[in-house]
Design a protein that fits this description.
The protein has about 375 residues and is an alpha/beta fold. The chain contains 11 helices and 13 strands. α3 crosses α7 and α9 packs parallel to α11 (about 355-374).
Length: about 375
């Protein structure tokens, strides 16, 4: 059966919270582990545990001696370009990949922007805040949340999709995504988690033959730099120039530039590749343990969305809201799924952790399911 998708009616309205049509588009996993909740075992945030590594912290610390000077991004930009085999003119450094969504919303004069959901909600929130009316293409769980060739309206002139997609962990084929390109269309592919995929299979980052392609990358997930804010855009030079025009002066700090340069070295890329393989193995362990739980659970249906490719899993469990609350009482934070268009109150996203943490979590989840059913 071909993947099914439904195009929502354009949802009106925007606001400071970025909410639309009943979804809190500005809710993110870090909200689960703030303040006193920081002591919870964190399966809500998709930043790799145990990061940043010591060598990277030392490299960033060494950059502090240059804080009196204004940031100069030329070396970091060249490093990113070389990492992907691209000309420097196709690279724009940003204060995290999330900033790129704001720049795109301000710089691209889209008449019919489409966001493919379920996915990271900041692209839609940024578009709405910039005054755009956003149309949603909502993928269907029955087809594995995979994109069908006819799902996106032919006259959409801005299309945003994640790969691998947060929160579904689906990895779309590069050919399928490249096939979305059209004359006059900007195709934005959010690859924030692609470096967690072994071999970065299905990446479009190095492609220069896809018209209107914009690829977004983040260094915050694999390297544990969410607090530093560093990412980048890969696009045609004219698009890079347009985005740069609406970007604030000196948007990326000197420590973040130092991190970008360091994370693009051959040794860093080799370390990231090893981490991706470990994550894949740990994800398989989490999926296996959840499958065992699904077979034994009598009080709630537990279903894992797969096959998964990102450093997280999406699960459907009856009574997820109450289970999530009980998990917090048992010491675990997980990401609620009901803020993602296309999902609902019975979905949870789980960050992949080491096997010992997973085993402890499954014990807690088993108890939470039993307790909430009592």
């Amino acid at each position: 059966m071909a993947p099914d998708a439904s195009a929502d009616l354009p949802a009106e309205g925007s606001g400071a919270d970025g909410g639309a049509a009943g979804f809190d588009l500005r809710h993110h996993g870090d909200a689960e582990v703030r303040g006193a909740d920081a002591a919870l075992t964190d399966l809500a945030v998709n930043v790799r545990a145990g990061t940043p590594p010591d060598w990277l912290k030392a490299h960033i610390a060494a950059s502090l001696d240059g804080l009196a000077a204004y940031p100069d991004g030329r070396v970091a930009r060249e490093a990113v370009a070389a990492r992907h085999g691209l000309p420097v003119g196709r690279v724009l450094l940003t204060a995290g990949a999330a900033e790129a969504f704001v720049l795109l919303a301000r710089a691209i004069p889209a008449r019919r922007p489409v966001v493919v959901h379920p996915q990271f909600t900041e692209p839609e929130a940024a578009l709405r805040d910039a005054g755009h009316t956003v149309e949603r293409v909502v993928l269907d769980e029955r087809d594995g949340f995979r994109l069908g060739p006819a799902a996106v309206p032919e006259d959409a002139d801005l299309v945003v999709i994640g790969n691998p997609t947060n929160p579904t962990s689906v990895l779309h084929s590069a050919d399928a995504l490249a096939g979305l390109a059209r004359p006059g269309r900007t195709l934005v592919v959010d690859e924030a988690f692609m470096d967690a995929v072994p071999g970065e299979s299905e990446s479009l980052a190095a492609r220069t033959d896809v018209p209107g392609l914009v690829v977004l990358r983040s260094l915050t997930k694999t390297w544990g730099l969410a607090g530093l804010r560093i990412g980048y855009v890969l696009a045609e030079p004219d698009t890079v120039t347009a985005l740069e025009r609406v970007q604030p002066l000196w948007p990326v700090s000197s420590p973040a530039l130092a991190a970008a340069e360091a994370c693009c070295t051959p040794s860093a890329l080799a370390e990231a590749a090893r981490a991706a393989h470990r994550t894949a193995a740990d994800r398989a362990h989490l999926a296996d343990r959840l499958a065992e739980l699904a077979e034994s659970a009598e009080s709630a249906e537990v279903r894992v969305c797969g096959p998964a490719a990102g450093p997280f899993l999406l699960i459907h469990v009856t009574g997820a809201a109450a289970i999530r609350t009980r998990l917090r009482e048992l010491g675990f934070a997980v990401r609620r799924g009901d803020t993602f268009p296309g999902l609902g109150p019975d979905w949870l996203r789980l960050a992949v952790r080491d096997r010992a943490t997973t085993d402890r979590f499954v014990i807690a989840l088993t108890k939470a399911i039993a307790d909430t059913a009592a």
